[in-house]
Amino acid sequence: MKAAKRTQDVKALELQLTEDSVAPHTVYFKEHIVREHTKDKPQGRTLLVVNVPPYADEKGLINAFREAGSVQSVQLCLKPSTADVKHIMRFIPEEKITTFRAAYIVFKKVAELDKALKLTELQPLNSNAHQMQVGIKKWINEYNSSIILPKTLKENVETFMKQFDENAQKADKKEKELEQEDDEGWVTVTKRGKVQSFARSEKVENKIMQKEEKNKKRKELKNFYTFQIRESKMKHIVSLRQKFEEDKKKIAQIKQSRRFKPF
Amino acid sequence: MVKRDVKTSISEGEGDVQVINENGKRSAEDENKDGPKRVRTKSLYRQPTVNELNRLQETENLFNSNLFRLQVDEIIEEVKVKEKTEKRFLQFFTELKTHLLSIPEDDTEYDLSEQTLFKKLKVKLPLSGKLSKTKCMFKFHKFSNVEIVGSYALGCAINSKLRVDLQISVPGETYTKNDSINYRYHKKRAAYLAYIAAHLSKLENIEELQYSYINGTETKPVLDFKPTGKLGNQLSVRINLLCDSDAYKLHRFSPERNNLREAWLFNENSESNTEVGPPTPCYNNSVLADLTATVNQVFLNEILQKSENLKQAVTLLKIWLRQRNLKVSGHVVALLVAYFVQTKRVNNIMSSYQIVRNIWIALKTSDLDTKGISLCKATDTSPSLEDFHKHFPVVFIDRTGFYNICGQMCKGTYLALKRECVLAVDMLDNGKINSFLPLFMVPVKPLMQFDHILRFKNLKQLKESVLAKTPREAQVNHGIEQLPLVTDVVHSLLAKGLGNRVDLIQQLVDNDFSWPVKKSLDKVRSGYEEKLSFGFVLNPENSINVVEKGPPANLPEAEEFRAFWGDKSELRRFQDGSITETCVWEGESMTERRTVTKQIVDYLMKLKFDINPSDLFHISDQLDSVLARKQWASERVLYVDDSSLTALQAFDALRRDLRQLVQLPLDISAVYGVSPIFSYSAPAPALPRATPHNPWQRASTCLVKDMQRDGLASLPEYTPVCKAILELGHSGKWPGDIHAFRCLKAAFHLQIAERLTAQYSLPTQAYATHIDVLKNGLVFRLEIAHAKEITLLKREMQHGVVKYRESEESVRLQCDTVLMPRLRGALHGLHQKHPSFGPTACLFKRWLSAHLLSPPHFPETVAELMTAAVYMHAAPTQPPASPTVGLVRVLKLLAEFDWQRDMIVLDFNEDMSHEEITELEQKFAASPESAPAVRIVTAYDGPMPSVWSRAGPSANVLARARRLAASALKYLDDALMVGHKDNILGMFVPSYAGYNVLIHLHSALVPHSSERVDQPPKLQPLPEKLTEEIIPVVEFHPVTKYLGELRSAYGDFALFFHDLYGGEVIAVLWKPDIKDDREFQLTNANALKPYSAKGETKYKVNIEALIEDFRILGDGLVKHITVN
């Protein structure tokens, strides 16, 4: 196996923004090896880079590793993770967080990854063709691109709703299918099915429990036996005592902070 | 009877027996098996004893609450004189007494106008030069006894600054019949005192032998000294001289009699000496005090000596008065209590709480200034109360019927006392606070208590000009004691001039004076200055009236009005048709109207006493300049509350528009403002903008032009938006998925924006999350809120069961869309009730921000809530009426409140019950680690108490803010109460010491940079033509953006501090562990760099790279970075 030959140690190299950066960050990288590789991070071609500075973007990383060879894709994420990223359909995209990130760089060829692992120096992030967007320029761009035409917004809304409706329909269909008896004769009970059931939520559960409790209480007799009366009287005194004890504690606390020295 | 030693009866019970009684099944054998359980049973379920039942009952009936009672017990115990001290003092006193009684007789007669007595005694006479023209011969007669009197004798002394009063009765034969006039009595009394002083100076175990004038009574000095050694730290001793009651007949000193000749006072021909002048009740009163002291002391002893509860009550009242800084002596208090015992309002069977409460109620309703009270049953010989009222502002007659106990009390003091009684009863009746603390534990300082303080820079000049304008009779009455006269005259002038604008005018006199017995008075006095100032508690409504309406022109009173106000008074016709004499003061803006009091005082002092405003010092509006905009101005200076009002008016119009929108699937049912501007508490509120010049535009909004000038980006003026929340009519059709819900919300935003443009041709811009709309040149940002969105965010599945849990996002949304609208409404209401609330909140925010604690370190809402707390829990004072004083109070709250133990409850509409509050208290007390550092609960918080302070301030920030507040208060006290500094903006200047890295920004790019306190005002005029068609660039704040990026990227390594209102520096503080070695992990390798030490590779944080990053991220904004 080719991968076995590769060293598993993490390599550390300095990553400059421009040629004349004085105090660059050190990035650490190694081959991305996990038990189950996903499609977007194929085995043997993926490089995991951590401590990527906040201002670096995908193209910048391609710039940095350009000596190793051509890069197929770059994924930036907050933490290195093995799990497949689930794509939830969002209407409002998640906010971009400026912070240190991890990157998965997928090279086109296996050999290029080998080369990358043997690099002794990284190129700066900025190149003539592409510069990192930072500072005022970035904010201006962000602001300007946040303003969208009503028409565009409308289109966005419509496509999203269409998609959502389709998904919802699919889910409905799936539920309906579940209602059918399966091979062993089991039927899954769902909200819309023929078999009536209650919603399984905390609120409903609590309600049922409360009802039970109430029923229990109704069966009891109160202040009927002498001992009950005696007990209720005692309870009153106990509550008074409890209050007294609490107040005493409070006083002790205030005393501790020497707040009874008025002057 | 209230049982004192109940503690034992509660904690020690007859446990073992009770256990069996109460629970028959349990026998004595297994008591050692389950030890801990038994203990609990013992303490709570034990059979009550009679004592205990009594005590519980008593507390319910006789005391406010259990807590109150326990606190009373504690404080009484705390202030009690220690037994050890008592023993030591007794020993000391016996020695002192023997020494004093060994004073030799002396048969020589001394002429007091010569120095003979001084030569003999080697001790100066405690007399001012003004008395030198009184001639008399003095011969020392030995006294027979020395007694302990006053609070120490009665057992109601307070052990801090304890002073034991001794009295020596001067034998009657010392004075001749004619000595009562022209201060001869006083002169002899002084000589007698000097004689004792000389004798005492030979005693070894005393030190710091001094003469003192108390309350400025120059004619009646006393002798103060301290025992040597440890006892001297505990107490000091005062010797007071009084006169044998058989020396004079009391009626010689009736208020209508004259004892001080006019001719003597004004140095006129002495031949007219025989002529009897106007009555001199004040002079008489000072002699009467000595003559009647014994009678009153006997009377007091009779009533109080054996009554523990009464004594306790006197002690409590004394503590209360001392905390309030009221000049009412313990003697007067004891006599007042005695009076109420005599009239059967209180008795010794009552608990001390009941006595104190009853006395407060009695004083609250008393009218000692018009209906005086007397301890003596009226007889034919004693003068009538009317006679006293003619001459004294406050009348409280003693046992003999001649001496007015409150003769020295100024009306201001009495009114203050009455007012404090009202406040005290209110506090007691407020079940929601622990009223004990504000009543007895919190000292009230002038700077806290008054909205406006008037100080005189040149008291001598004031004295002269006041004396020149007061009638001779009054001067004769007060004799050589001029300050009380001046105080009275100025007080009544201010009272008349300010009328119902003030709730209280109280004089603050500082004239207690002591000096060593061997030094002559006049020499020592040259370096000493008496201080006189007046504190005003303003009436929040009346004090901002610009127009002082007088009587109609045709009435005779009009003449008087004109005479009083001089040229300022003019005839005016009002809208209701009335024509009256009127004074009109300047006040266009709210801030100017707050200075009306100052204008009136300045005018009156100039008019009546010819004192220039420059000789007066007002503590009232020093910080108003911080509330004024520096960059912008309309025709006049623009204050924050004016701009807020403009925004509110525009918002109201917009709200109407929104409600009337048609063709919407759901109607808009409510619109709430949420930005601070809607409660007048935005320090730099949004201002109307002009049409942008040559804008780049998309839809109806300006874009930011990416242009450079001189190498710097040229950015548009920072324009804040005013945020509001829309609520739609009810519908069950909202989707049950959060993303679909948001999509639908966006669709609504679109539609509302479209309709607004179509119906009212307002420029709008719809976004997925909000709508921007332009109205009257201001940009409003509207967002639809729906409870379902919060529910959807909370929703999560666990084992197939849907559960609702708070998440960070759901809490934030709930705060923004549900809690904030209500809170903002409540704060707006608070501002309407107390118009200084908004400006005070602005000042506080500015102050916090100036010290680099701007949000998120100290969130805005927490600052607002703290300010609100000052207004809602003003006890022991009333809510402040001016922003400057308001800020002082907020700082005081911040610095002195016990944040660790207590919480503040802001119950705007009295919705919370006592039980709920107690429950919350217990909840916080149960888990002190999870509770936020600042605990402020509002009635709206519901299941998330103190939600606003969850995110901040942290314990560290709070500690820093408290330290800063404490030093700011000290600075203010020095500048205002000691010095006469009008410029106190120094408290808004931050210190950059102690920070690791300073990032300097280009000032041209920093929003509000010209609003900073150290910047000169620019005052650009506001645009006349407002933008109508295009929404300007809004909420584009490069510094906030930059800070946001810094905090999210480097929050693990450093803290970033900045002044939101124009700060050009970002101060960076590394976290304390920044230099430590780190462990390298793939998941946690941020900003680490390898280095080799001893052959090993170690990792640490790459600080140089971080600093480089600061420069990279702030490209175009950062000027330079300095590393300390």
TrEMBL record, chain A:
GO terms for cellular component: CURI complex; UTP-C complex. Residues 161-257 form a coiled coil. One of its GO terms (molecular function) is nucleic acid binding. InterPro entries: Nucleotide-bd_a/b_plait_sf, RBD_domain_sf, RRP7, RRP7_C. The keyword Oxidoreductase does not apply. Belongs to the RRP7 family. This is Ribosomal RNA-processing protein 7 C-terminal domain-containing protein. It comes from Mythimna separata. The lineage of its organism: Eukaryota, Metazoa, Ecdysozoa, Arthropoda, Hexapoda.
UniProtKB/TrEMBL annotation, chain B:
GO terms for biological process: rRNA processing; tRNA export from nucleus. InterPro entries: NOL6/Upt22, Nrap_D1, Nrap_D2, Nrap_D3, Nrap_D4, Nrap_D5, Nrap_D6. It comes from the Eukaryota. Transmembrane segments: none annotated. Residues 164-305, 310-442, 446-609, 623-832, 834-983, 993-1121 form the Nrap protein domain. Signal peptide: none annotated. One of its GO terms (molecular function) is RNA binding. Keywords: Chromosome, Nucleus, RNA-binding. It is found in: Chromosome; Nucleus, Nucleolus. Residues 23-37 have a biased composition (Basic and acidic residues). Residues 1-40 are annotated as: Disordered. Part of the small subunit (SSU) processome, first precursor of the small eukaryotic ribosomal subunit. During the assembly of the SSU processome in the nucleolus, many ribosome biogenesis factors, an RNA chaperone and ribosomal proteins associate with the nascent pre-rRNA and work in concert to generate RNA folding, modifications, rearrangements and cleavage as well as targeted degradation of pre-ribosomal RNA by the RNA exosome. PANTHER family: NUCLEOLAR PROTEIN 6, NUCLEOLAR RNA-ASSOCIATED PROTEIN. This is Nucleolar protein 6. It comes from Mythimna separata (Oriental armyworm).
